[in-house]
Amino acid sequence: MMSVRIGILLAAAAGLGALAPAGNAQAAAGTGFSSTNVAAPTPDKPQPQLEPAYRRPTEKAKLRGYLFDTFGPYPIAGAVLVGAIDQEDKAPPEWGKGAAAYGERVGSNFGIEMVTTTTRYALAEALGEDTLYYRCECSGVFRRLGHALISTVTARVGPEGTRRFSVPDLVAPYAGTMTAVYGWYPSRFNAKDGFRMGNYDLLGFVGENIAREFIYGDHTRCSDV
Question: 73-89 vs 98-127: helix axis angle to the nearest 10?
């Protein structure tokens, strides 16, 4: 049943992504937007290959990204969809059936997503990481897929946007599910359940990045970067 649920979630991410315009791209090697100020090459003189320049997002851009990722249409739609799946699966069964139970499940999923996103952005700010997603300027399905996968657990640091392993990206999904387990889930749930649920949330983040790469990008993040 869980594999079916994950498949539905990934398909839904793709469907929601089709509604949004494409974002800007950056190179897979950790660089970003192409410069428009390079002089035209002369035919008798070889020109060096210039890497696109990475520009760190402003605080305003990061705030907009946080608000969109926390309260925008995608987390709300995701909470509604996952709540419907949980309602069908009666998960957790202690919450029962009916409209009130469905509302509780939707609220729970939205709360998990809110804690997850807040943790990711707060830790990234404290550690000086740029965890925003940048589409790859590379070509080929497998290279772009690899870029989306590696972006799930990496971030950019420094003025040049060097890519490194990201603690905020890895920790955030588990922060959200552990908060739910010890905050509002039935008392029989424990850390093992929170870890298991966090694994599924991390997998969902992979699907979200794949959708960003191939379908809709992230125009709210790229516009001010």
Answer: 130
Instruction: Give the chain's domain count.
Output: 1
In a domain, 175, yes or no: yes
Nearest to 133 by CA among 114, 148, 121: 148
Confidence of residue 30 (pLDDT cuts 50, 70, 90): very low
pLDDT greater than 90 at residue 86:
yes
- Structural domain containing residue 125: 55-222
Burial 152-164 (b: 16+ CB within 10 A, else e): bebbbbeeebebe
> What pLDDT is stored for residue 201 in this prediction?
94
Q: Does 3 map to a domain?
A: no
Q: Give the C-alpha separation, 76 to 111, whole Å.
A: 10
Note whether residue 192 is domain-resident: yes
User: Beta 129-130 vs 135-136: how paired, if at all?
Assistant: unpaired
Chain centre to alpha carbon of residue 192 = 24
- pTM for this model (two decimals): 0.75
Classify residue 39: in a domain, yes or no: no
Find where tokens 């949004």 sit.
Answer: 20
